[in-house]
Amino acid sequence: MDYFSYRKNKLYAEGLSVERLADELGTPLYIYSERTLKRHFKVFDSAFKKVPHLVCYSIKANSNIAVVNTFVNEGSGFDIVSGGELYRAMKAGAHPSSIVFSGVGKTAEEMGCAIREGILLFNVESGEELRQLDAVAGRLGKKASFAIRVNPDVDPKTHPYISTGLKKNKFGIAREEAIKEYVYAKNNLTNLIPLGIDTHIGSQLTQVGPFVDALKKTKRLVRTLRKEGIDIKYLDVGGGLGITYEGEKPPAPDKYAKAVIRETAGLDVTLIFEPGRVLVGNAGILVTRVLYTKKTPQKNFIIVDAGMNDLLRPGLYGSYHAIEPVQRGRGGAVITADVVGPICETGDFIARDREMEEAVGGDLLAVKSAGAYGYTMSSNYNSRLRAAEVMVRGREYFVIKKRESYADLVRGEVIPPVKTAVKSKKRG
Ligand SMILES: *Cc1c(COP(=O)(O)O)cnc(C)c1O
């Protein structure tokens, strides 16, 4: 449930008219509802209140420091996948002891920063990474805690690009190898502390089954490791709980929680969760203005001012995002149209063959469920300025990211000195 709704046929974000925000701040515009963010966190967190747990919001879903700060205030921990996300977490006021660091390609430098900050643990994804982590911790004269991300080889039944827990994926370590690595670390890598075990199987999961399958395997592994004298205190279940984009019926957090709690009963671990999409996805919309419409013998095109540089998911995964008129009920004809952006790529679309009310130049459209993997995946392709982001709180709003300027666009770029000038000097 979210706090975007119609009043007298005008779309509102909490207590503010979306049209007014678009008129004042321009488009394309990302609008987030603070109340929705908080509600989503509370629903998720309280579903696990009976068991020891730590919710670590996965920053990559929406990394604006205002969003991260909202979750800091709700008591969230954080899942980071880069030094940049560590920086954002610290800027937003996160407590380092609530941070877990995931990802297959952490650099020594990133590891060093995270160790110095004192994060809770590293989710390690290869034997080489484990050795590197030990070396970095040793150089700093510190201990680093780790969990191995075990690849449970289960099919999350989601889009192949966001499946991560299959044997063929680049993520994690297979079970047998993971056991060997824990034992090796225990005996040889003296700067490391084995603290947990991690499994993240993919994103936008709409069934409980794959989570349960992964947990069954992980549970057995925890018991095996304990027999080897490796005391696993944290079980990181990862993220991946899906949301409704187009009629999917993902399990509600309490249903997911019930299954997870049942599966991990008696294991005596603190559970870690890394939800991203489920916390922020439906808390954000992307507002775009129609520039032109165009009819060809094959298609109706609605050309809008948001492109794949603003919202990549449709072009990258073929994802569906609902599109609603900011002013509805005008009785326009229902047409089938492609909603496309200004970018010079055929993959630049927000919707294809969509049945929707006819729109005309100047109309505002709201692209729903854009709070996750929206702005964070945006780019400057075609030298387009990244959109602004605004947080709504009741009847107030806060611009939490300014729209970029042309000067921002070339920041850091340098033109080398003219070659001929150097030559003439030599001849001089
Ligand atoms: C992306 C990611 C998440 C978050 O996934 P969602 O589907 O957004 O919940 C959690 N953990 C890891 C390791 C990830 O890479």
Q: Which short descriptors sum up this protein?
A:
428 residues, alpha/beta, Lyase, Ornithine Decarboxylase, Chain A, domain 1, TIM Barrel, 2 domains, 8-stranded parallel barrel, 13 helices, globular
What does this structure look like?
The chain has 428 residues and is of the alpha/beta class. The chain has 2 domains: 4-31 and 281-410, Lyase, Ornithine Decarboxylase, Chain A, domain 1; 34-280, Alanine racemase (TIM Barrel, Alpha-Beta Barrel), CATH 3.20.20. It contains 13 helices and 20 strands. It has helices at residues 18-25, 34-46, 65-73, 83-91, 108-117, 127-140, 175-188, 209-227, 253-264, 277-280, 313-317, 406-409, 419-427, and strands at 4-7, 10-13, 16-17, 29-33, 53-58, 77-80, 99-101, 121-124, 144-149, 192-198, 234-236, 270-273, 284-295, 300-304, 323-325, 334-340, 349-357, 364-367, 388-393, 396-401. The strands form 3 sheets. Strands 4, 13, 14, 15, 16, 17, 18, 19 and 20 form a 9-stranded mixed β-sheet that branches. α5 (108-117) crosses α6. The chain is globular. Pyridoxal-5'-phosphate (PLP) is lined by residues 58, 60-61, 79, 81, 102, 200, 203-204, 238-241, 274-278, 372.
